[in-house]
Amino acid sequence: MIFEDHFFENLPTDKYEAGIQICQAICDFDRVQTKPEQKYNSFDEYIDAFAALDAFIESNDLQYKMPILETDKHRSIQAIMKFCYDVLIDLEKYVADKNFISSRDRYKIIFSGGFIYRFTNGDLLRIQELINELRNLISESELFTANHKERLLNKLEILQKELHKKMSSLDKFWGLIGEAGIVLGKFGQDAKPFVDRMKEIAQIIWRTQSNAEELPSGAKLPLLKSDD
């Protein structure tokens, strides 16, 4: 079969990028079937892959109309691959457009002289490290439901992609910090490894923001005052 269980376990949390990887795997399989008899003999693999793509599209509420397969195996494979290539091109365009808009908006802020937050190289590297640690902890944890895991991992993935030395907004980071309170409230001390890392991210964000706002040096983050 084209897909093993571990393939789906390692998909990106972003549904568009996950869809791209699924379509690419099917297309890669099709490219090595160079002879008609190879395709014919691999019909079951094509059908299994088509079923996986169909289930993914339905589960993620992607608006694609699945083709109707014919009784002729060769024509069915052609229909599957045409659909797969069309979806792949569409998803790649969507992701490319989204990345372009995000980059363009970031540069517009810089070039227009608008208000931006500046991270030091050390802070930028440390946030990346903390996000990676959180991703690993969340993926391996048994505390969270599958939906909660997906939500947290998706937030981390978005943050990691948008994290730059200069940023016009820190709102998404504060949204992640809000999650720390939710996790702590639900799981108590069991959530300490997650909360500690979120707390360190919050301290870096606060330091960056307080410097930009010209607050007194060493100003403390009020929300994180505690007795420990």
Question: Overview of this structure, please?
Answer:
It contains nine helices and two strands, in the order H-H-H-H-H-E-H-H-E-H-H. By secondary structure, it is mainly α. The chain folds into two domains: 5-98; 115-224. Strands 1-2 form a two-stranded antiparallel sheet. It is elongated.
Count of DSSP-assigned helices: 9
> Main beta sheet: strand number and arrangement?
2 strands, antiparallel
Provide the domain count: 2
Portion in helices = 55-70%
Q: What string gives the helices and strands in order?
A: HHHHHEHHEHH
Show unreliable segments: 224-228
Overall shape: it is: elongated
N- to C-terminal distance: 53 Å
Give Rg in angstroms.
23 Å
Strand content: under 5%
Largest sheet strand order: 1-2
How many distinct beta strands? 2
Structural class category? mainly alpha
Mean pLDDT: 83
Mind sketching the topology for me?
Elements: H1 5-9, H2 15-31, H3 36-41, H4 43-59, H5 73-111, E1 117-118, H6 121-140, H7 146-162, E2 166-167, H8 171-187, H9 192-212
Antiparallel strand pairs: 1-2
Helix pairs in contact: 2-4, 2-5, 4-5, 6-7, 6-9, 7-8, 8-9
What is this structure, in a nutshell?
This protein has 228 residues and is mainly α. 70% of the residues lie in helices and 2% in strands.
Features:
228 residues; mainly alpha; 2 domains; 9 helices; 2 strands; elongated; disordered C terminus
